[in-house]
Amino acid sequence: MPLRTSESVVVPAAPAVVFEHLADLAGYPAWLGLVHSAEPLADGPRRAWSVELRARVGPFARSKRLRMECVELRAPELVVFERAETDGREHSRWALRVELEPQGDGTLVTMHLAYDGALWTGGLLEKVLDEQVRRGRAGLVALVSEPTR
């Protein structure tokens, strides 16, 4: 069964400021625990990253390395990342859609995570993924709210 999770948060900054933090996957490990690492790649026509996703369940950890591409970018309102492997094989779909819209003095950020495989779904691990995305809300607010150095 596919995994779909969505979370929203109001970030106390203008959409253009928030968008800077969301348009580059390399910055996601700083605020989204699920993304353990994200290294930029220069191996194709689109911006791409080698991403390691990691989730811990008690003493056990599950990790997955993906090649993700930015497939849609409309500053400052939308960024979409999708799995795009280059090995010629079929892989389960991973997609992250991030929507931004002005709200008062801040920005409403809504993240939609979609996964169509079987390895990360089913009961406890699915709940852990949901929780990681929920915790990312506070991490993003804290990151964007930090004073610039």
Descriptive labels:
single chain; 149 residues; alpha+beta; seven-stranded antiparallel beta sheet; 2 helices; 7 strands; 45% strand; globular
How would you describe the overall organization of this protein?
The protein has 2 helices and 7 strands. It has 149 residues and is of the alpha+beta class. Strands 1-7-6-5-4-3-2 form a 7-stranded antiparallel β-sheet, covered by helices on one side. 20% of the residues lie in helices and 45% in strands.
- What is the number of E strands? 7
What structural class do the secondary elements suggest? alpha+beta
Number of helices: 2
User: Uncertain regions: pLDDT < 50 for 5+ in a row?
Assistant: none
Give the helix level as a range of percent.
10-25%
Query: Averaged pLDDT, please?
Result: 88
Cα-based radius of gyration, to the nearest Å: 15 Å
Order of helices and strands: EHEEEEEEH
Distance between the termini: 45 Å
Estimate what percentage of residues fall within beta strands: 35-45%
Largest sheet entry: 7 strands, antiparallel
Strand adjacency order, main sheet: 1-7-6-5-4-3-2
Tell me the quaternary state: single chain
Gross morphology is globular
